[in-house]
Specification:
Blueprint (H helix, E strand, L loop, with lengths): L1 H26 L30
Length: 57
Amino acid sequence: MSEDKAVSTEEMKRKFKEALDKKNARSQGGEAHLDGDSAVHATAAPQMKREFRRKSG
């Protein structure tokens, strides 16, 4: 029983390691887009300070 349990835990560890390696390889394959141009170039209107008023009544 203990040998069967040890084999199954080793098999599970191997499967988890393979899945983790696969996940890490996929995440490192993308581009960083550091040399790309931003979509935001200028603001449409100057920023005005917001004015807060109390309600009357």
